[in-house]
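Students often ask why inverse folding is considered easier than folding. One informal answer: many sequences map to the same fold, so there is more than one right answer. In these notes we will look at a single instance of the problem. The structure comes first.
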C-alpha cells in the first residue's frame, strides 16, 4: 500500500513538473528585481509642484511606486489639485482610484471612478479612464463620459481636449443631453 502511494506521488510530481517551464537565473532575476518590482515605494505622499515659487499643482496618493524605467504607479488612489497661476486659487481637482505614468510616452492614465472638476468653467467630468499626454497636453478617453455643468448634463462615448485650449473639447459620440437650468 505504501509502495503504491509512493509510486502515485512520484508519477504526479513528474506530470506537474513537465507542465511548468524551468526559469533561468536571468529570468528569475527579472522576476525578483525586474520591471515588475518597484525601485522606490512611498506611502501617504503629498507633493507640491511650483514654478518660480508659484504653486502649479499638488498631488496626494496613499501609495506611489516608481520603477527603474521611470514609470510610476498609484494603485490606491490619486488626488491632484491644479492652481490658477494668477490668483493661486484651485482651478481643477482630479480624483481616481488608480493611476499610472508611462515615462517613455509621457502619458498619465487615471482609471476607475475618475472625477475631474473644473472650477473655472463650472464643469465636472466623470469617466472610467482618462489619459493625459504631458508633452502635448492632449487629454482623451474612449470610454463613456458624463459632463455636468450648471445648466446641462451631456453623456457620450469618447472625448478629446487639450490642456492648452481648455475651452474647447469634443465628445466623439454624444448619447444624450439634458438641460437642468431654469
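Output (designed amino acids):
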Amino acid at each position: 500500500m505504501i509502495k503504491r502511494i509512493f509510486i502515485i506521488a512520484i508519477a504526479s510530481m513528474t506530470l506537474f513538473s513537465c507542465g511548468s517551464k524551468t526559469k533561468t537565473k536571468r529570468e528569475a532575476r527579472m522576476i525578483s528585481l525586474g520591471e515588475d518590482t518597484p525601485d522606490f515605494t512611498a506611502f501617504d505622499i503629498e507633493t507640491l509642484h511650483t514654478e518660480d515659487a508659484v504653486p502649479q499643482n499638488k498631488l496626494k496618493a496613499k501609495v506611489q511606486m516608481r520603477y527603474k524605467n521611470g514609470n510610476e504607479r498609484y494603485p490606491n488612489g490619486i488626488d491632484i489639485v491644479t492652481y490658477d497661476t494668477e490668483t493661486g486659487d484651485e482651478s481643477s481637482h482630479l480624483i481616481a482610484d488608480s493611476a499610472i505614468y508611462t515615462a517613455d510616452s509621457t502619458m498619465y492614465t487615471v482609471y476607475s471612478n475618475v472625477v475631474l472638476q473644473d472650477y473655472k468653467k463650472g464643469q465636472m467630468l466623470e469617466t472610467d479612464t482618462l489619459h493625459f499626454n504631458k508633452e502635448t497636453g492632449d487629454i482623451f478617453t474612449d470610454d463613456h463620459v458624463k459632463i455636468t455643468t450648471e445648466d446641462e448634463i451631456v453623456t457620450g462615448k469618447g472625448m478629446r481636449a487639450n490642456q492648452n485650449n481648455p475651452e474647447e473639447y469634443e465628445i466623439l459620440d454624444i448619447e444624450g443631453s439634458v438641460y437642468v437650468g431654469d
